[in-house]
Amino acid sequence: xxxxxxxxxxxxxxxxxxxxxxxxxxxxxxxxxxxxxxxxxxxxxxxxxxxxxxxxxxxxxxxxxxxxxxxxxxxxxxxxxxxxxxxxxxxxxxxxxxxxxxxxxxxxxxxxxxxxxxxxxxxxxxxxxxxxxxxxxxxxxxxxxxxx
Length: 148
Ligand SMILES: [Zn+2]
Ligand SMILES: [Zn+2]
Hints:
Layout: H1 2-22, E1 30-36, E2 43-45, E3 49-57, E4 62-71, E5 77-82, E6 92-100, E7 109-118, E8 123-133, H2 140-144
Parallel strand pairs: 2-8
Antiparallel strand pairs: 1-3, 3-6, 4-5, 4-7, 7-8
The chain binds zinc ion (2 copies).
């Protein structure tokens, strides 16, 4: 009986070793920025928020999504991180968030970076151009509520 158990145990070893050898790193996250601003207009109003949509595929599972908006020729910066919630721990998602644009954000050209980090520590960044424009006083919330 004892030999039998030992033989079984020995038979498992190559199996485990073979499995370990086959494992490779999942590929890095892929991001497609689908909408920056309503209708992908690349504009956000002061004191309003920026509508942002992206398709994200992360074989290594999403760990963190980070949005950075910085002035192209200046030091003004807006940052927002998502580390909990529906996007985290999944392989693919449709990211849809609104980032607050403070009323004192200078009217200027900005650069947006959307960075995704997976659980393996691999990152990918998608970039876009963005303009902060004057608030027209209309409540855009009503206009852009879309069902998809
Ligand atoms: Zn939206
Ligand atoms: Zn930049």
